[in-house]
Design a protein that fits this description.
By secondary structure, the chain is of the alpha+beta class. The protein is built from six helices and six strands; from the N terminus they run ββααβαββαααβ.
C-alpha cells in the first residue's frame, strides 16, 4: 500500500506601508547583495537590527513577528499598501531567496519547553502563547535561524521553485 501525504501553501494577506510608522513597524526585506547579509540569522535580523537602514526594506507590515514567520514559511503573500495620500493598492510579496540556516518549526520547540501541550501546537495556540508572552519571542524565534527574503510584484506570489500560490 502506498501512502500519499498532501500539504498546501496559502497566500496570507497583510496591511502595510512603504514607510515605517507606529502602525507599520515590521520590515520585510529584499534579497541582500552581500554574502554576509545573505547569511544573517533570524535573531541578527529581527532582534539585533542587522539589516536596519540598509535600504533593503520592501514594506513595513502591520503584523507580528509570528505573522512574518508564517509568511516566510509560505513563501509569498498579498499586501494592501496604505499610501501616504490615503489611497491603497494591492501588491504581492514573492520568495526571493533564503539564508543558509535551517528552518525549524517553532511549535516543536514550544512543546519541548512545555509552553504548549503536546498535540496542541496549532497555529492559534502558538500565536496565543507569543501574544501572552512577548518576553519569550526572541528565545522562541532564535530556534529557527532560517530567514526568507522577498521581492515586490504586481503578480500573484510564487513560492519556492516559482510555483504560484493561488486559490484552490
Amino acid at each position: 500500500m502506498t501512502t500519499t501525504k498532501f500539504t498546501s501553501y496559502y497566500s496570507p494577506d497583510f496591511h502595510g506601508s512603504r514607510f515605517p510608522t507606529e502602525r507599520f513597524k515590521y520590515p520585510i526585506y529584499k534579497w541582500p547583495t552581500g554574502p554576509k547579509e545573505q547569511n544573517l540569522t533570524r535573531t541578527e535580523i529581527d532582534f539585533k537590527g542587522a539589516l536596519k537602514g540598509k535600504g533593503l526594506e520592501v514594506f513595513w507590515l502591520e503584523a507580528s513577528l509570528f505573522d512574518i514567520y508564517l509568511l516566510q514559511i509560505q513563501g509569498g503573500g498579498r499586501i494592501t499598501v496604505h499610501n501616504e495620500d490615503g489611497s491603497t493598492q494591492v501588491k504581492y510579496l514573492s520568495y526571493a531567496g533564503k539564508n543558509k540556516h535551517p528552518l525549524r518549526m517553532i511549535g516543536k520547540y514550544m512543546v519541548e519547553k512545555g509552553y504548549i501541550m503536546p498535540g496542541k501546537a496549532t497555529i492559534n495556540q502558538q500565536r496565543k502563547f507569543l501574544e501572552q508572552n512577548p518576553d519569550k519571542e526572541e528565545e522562541v524565534f532564535s530556534t529557527t535561524p532560517s530567514y526568507v527574503f522577498f521581492y515586490e510584484s504586481d503578480e500573484e506570489p510564487v513560492g519556492v521553485n516559482n510555483i504560484p500560490l493561488t486559490s484552490g
